[in-house]
Amino acid sequence: MIKVRNLKKQFGNVLVLNDINLDIEKGEVVAIIGPSGSGKSTLLRCLNLLEEPNGGTIEINDVKLDTLNYKSRDAYQLRQQTAMVFQHYNLFKNKTALQNVIEALIVSKKMKKENAIQIGEELLKRVGLEKQAKQYPITLSGGQQQRVSIARALAVKPHAILFDEPTSALDPELVNEVLQVIRQLADQDTTMVIVTHEMQFAKEVADKVIFMADGKIIEQGTPEQVIDHSENPRTQRFLRQLVDELDVVER
């Protein structure tokens, strides 16, 4: 489903992604963990060219792109393969929840409005927000806004959904309602790549966990291998720091 080879990304003189190689199977849920500044979100944004890589190839569902030699049509085709769910929702503030979900269907897919509305209403029901269809983002909680953004991502029927820290902007009591929707998607064999700091969630839903640090993939494997039984000192140090931070918060 997703194949990345020798992917590089620089910001000025800083090498943010250093020779990334990655394989994700259809229906696989992959959680990417690691410290701040490790390149997790940049990797996600390179997959759909929100950030322009400085080298390597990206292949998603038979669409292959050489990041040093491609045309705008190639970029468009690659972007059509995925949908992104952002940390801060990125909803249109002047549009209702339903209008946010159907916008891409009408504008990009050229779908008739009545057909788009039917799909949009079904998707809002799927994420538990059918009663909020006519509400504007400002009247919704953070968890509800994030669920609208997930419905919007599902609307375009992507081959994979990319989640960039989908719960990090939420109050703790709202986190679970978003994670529950993602759990349901995982149960339906949706291909997902999730940058997250929720270790328990990663253990529950991910088929594969990737630990990144300093722009490199340090370790990857099952949640049990990486989170519970890692023998890599860098991974162990990161996980210990997380536990220490949780202890401080709980006190």
TrEMBL record:
UniProt-listed InterPro entries: AAA+_ATPase, ABC_ATPase_HisP-typ, ABC_transporter-like_ATP-bd, ABC_transporter-like_CS, MetN_ABC_transporter-like, P-loop_NTPase
Assign the protein's first listed, main location to one coarse class.
membrane
Q: How does it sit in the membrane?
A: Peripheral membrane protein
Q: Where in the cell is it found?
A: Cell membrane
UniProt entry keywords in alphabetical sequence:
ATP-binding, Cell membrane, Membrane, Nucleotide-binding, Transport
> Which CDD domains does the UniProt record give?
ABC_HisP_GlnQ
Q: Which SMART domains did the record assign?
A: AAA
Domain of life assignment: Bacteria
Care to name a GO molecular-function term for this sequence? ATP binding
Tell me where in this chain the ABC transporter domain is found: 2-239
Please provide, in alphabetical order, the Gene Ontology terms of the cellular component aspect for this entry: plasma membrane
State the name under which the record lists this protein.
Answer: Amino acid ABC transporter ATP-binding protein
Q: Which organism is it from?
A: Peribacillus loiseleuriae
